[in-house]
Design brief:
This protein is of the alpha/beta class. The chain has 3 domains: 66 residues; 201 residues, 3-Layer(aba) Sandwich (Rossmann fold); 75 residues, Winged helix-like DNA-binding domain superfamily/Winged helix DNA-binding domain (Arc Repressor Mutant, subunit A), CATH 1.10.10. Helices cover 43% and strands 11% of the residues. The chain has 16 helices and 11 strands. It has a 9-stranded mixed sheet with strand order 1-2-6-5-4-3-7-8-9, sandwiched between helices. A two-stranded antiparallel ribbon has the order 10-11. Helix 6 packs parallel to helix 7, helix 6 packs across helix 12 and helix 13 packs across helix 15. The chain is elongated.
Length: 411
Amino acid sequence: MSAAKGLGPQPDREPEPEPEPGPGPELEVLARAALTRVLEPGEEHGGRWLRAFGGVGLIRLLTGPEKEMGALTGVGPERLCGYRRRAALADPRRDLAAAAASGGRFVCPGAAEWPTQLDDLGDARPIGLWLRGRPNLRTWALRSVAVVGARACTPYGAHMAQTLAGGLAERGWVVVSGAAYGIDGAAHRGALASGGATAAVLACGVDVDYPRGHAGLLGRIAGQGLVLGELPPGSHPTPSRFVLRNRVIAALTRGTVVVEAAHRSGSLVTARRAQALGRLTMGVPGPATSGLSAGVHELLRGEAQLVTDAAEVIELVGGMGDLAPERRGPVLARDLLDPATVRVLEALPAGRLVNVDEVTLAAATDTDEVIGRLYELHSLGFVERQGDGWQLTTRTPGPGTQTRATRRGGG
């Protein structure tokens, strides 16, 4: 029995304060959209702050009283002041409206469309991604391969990239690249020409056509696939942003194929980041004398796998049973003979008749064995008999002979 029972009326108690609700998902989206104006892609101290305070907490610290800024450690006061100025100018609602006007959206970690493999980047993972295009990014990223390479590529490199990407797209794989000139553009075009899926990861806003010469290509990608990036609408690329963009390509995909790359190519950054993340790294070999293939060949001397077509790529990144067809040269009729018959055949000299005794001596076997093998070779069209002599036939056994050799149980 409760101790309060039977003691008469009890005085009114002060109601316990209800816990303050945490920020809703809408506020977190707004905060992270704002932070894409504040932090550069891949800033790991920003990633640590986000992990500690969340998007809403971090933007409140950056826009709140200066005395509370002590919680943001790892950078100097001048950089913190720069962040505060950017945070004060950020207008996430305007950016979200601008993205929506161009058919875009903003996706944050934790959302249903967020590709969780990007979390492998740790504190360097994107704050969020701006997208343009209708497909679901998370679904597409599950079967995606990056195809990257040199901007100033050779006709061979462009052909290989386009053919490789077309083959991947035909088999249901999403081709991911950076929409740059050269190999990137060839890979996107190859996927589009096959009626397949392709995604472009940009180092600028998804509403910015960069490079300008690819404005039409980017429009086609957005219409048929996805254009994505970390930077808010209207943002322009810088050299460092291109390098940082490559980590997203590496983390987003199952593997990275480098088609052509010199020793200092940015595509090697993508490949090495993919290796560090435990993704498959592949390379398409080129001429040994080509400087544009030197970087690829260096990768192939390490842990990268050599590939020459889409089937070989899928064998590496796909599931069990996705095997590339076995490749070999044409099968000749002689290949189907067993070793004992080949030894007798090799004992016959070219251009003259020999008797059984000579063949027996040259083949280092007995007479009965030689006679049996010679008649087998005669039926298959390899030798002919004239009286007591035998000689090689002047005609090459054709496909019909191969069939007979197989039927007779030749090696």
